[in-house]
Amino acid sequence: MKPDHISSPPLAPHAVSLLRTRRIARSTKPFMARGGVRGERCTGCRLRPSHCLCSQRPTQATQAGVCLLLADTEPLKPSNTGWLVADVVADTFAFGWARTEVDADLLALLADPEWQPYIVFPGEYVSAERVLHSLDAPKQESDGVAQKRPLFVLLDATWSEARKMFRKSPYLDRFPVLSLQPERLSRYRLRRSTRSDHFCTAEVAAMCLELSGDLRAAQTLEAYLDLFTHYYLQAKQQLPANMDSPACQAWRNARTHLPAS
Ligand SMILES: [Zn+2]
């Protein structure tokens, strides 16, 4: 890991970063995150320059893609974890959600024959025939027809916003709903000792990547989320990152098991 005081060269902005830039341009007043880090931030990772993580960004090619639909202010929040999904999963798409309009690029993506969209949402809110708990096993390619890649559509929002987004997006109605099962959620919680009842977007994405067989990306995303959280909290307290912390150790372990890229 690099020393804390060296800033990394800027990386190409990813989908969530571009969405954030567009959202800021539309703002009439600056967004003040409650309890967040004040002052200058790196545009690549949103952390203080002294805690910049850009040199660690672990982008990977995956079988699955992720399509994030972000509630209005979500791209502005420095702790938004959809950003971390875009750091890891090369094929991450991000769109701002609005009740009255839908982005034509989103509709084109959902209709793209390369992808099979799955709306990730609790199954109890939809009719049973629409609900899946796992992905269909890949079929043998026949007649030269390529297997569609899974596209996980995640609603990146507070829970009440997510329910509204789900109800008021008729263009999502034709797709299956991938409902993560309670056993899977509790296994995940045990493994990660997650204390909250609410999973963040990066955690949900990691569970989805496990289902699509993108295990390495799933593990990377989990370790990267912990690393980011450690740096974020240390920066908030104006402390340097602790390289001996469990998050930094786990990150080094994860990196040594990654292929060279
Ligand atoms: Zn940075």
UniProtKB/TrEMBL annotation:
DTW domain span: 38-237
InterPro entries (UniProt xref): DTW (IPR005636), DTWD2/TAPT (IPR039262)
Enzyme class: transferase
Keyword S-adenosyl-L-methionine: yes
Keywords of this entry: S-adenosyl-L-methionine, Transferase, tRNA processing
Entry's EC annotation: 2.5.1.25
Protein name per Swiss-Prot or TrEMBL: tRNA-uridine aminocarboxypropyltransferase
Species per Swiss-Prot/TrEMBL record: Ottowia thiooxydans
